[in-house]
Amino acid sequence: MSIPWGFVALSFVLCLAVTAPGLKRVYYFVSLCYAGAIAAQALLIWLVHYDTASGFTLLMLVLLILYGARLGGFLLRRASYPPYAQVLASVEQRTSGMTDRQKLMIWGGVSVLYTLLALPAWLAATAQARDASMLSVPLGVLVMLAGLVIETVADWQKSSFKAAQPTQFCDIGLYRVVRFPNYFGEMVFWLGVWIAGISVYGSVAAWLLTTLALLYMVVLMVGAARSLELKQDERYGEQPRYQEFVRTVPVLVPKLPVYSLRNINIPIR
Question: Tell me, what DSSP letter sits at residue 148?
Answer without folding.
Answer: H
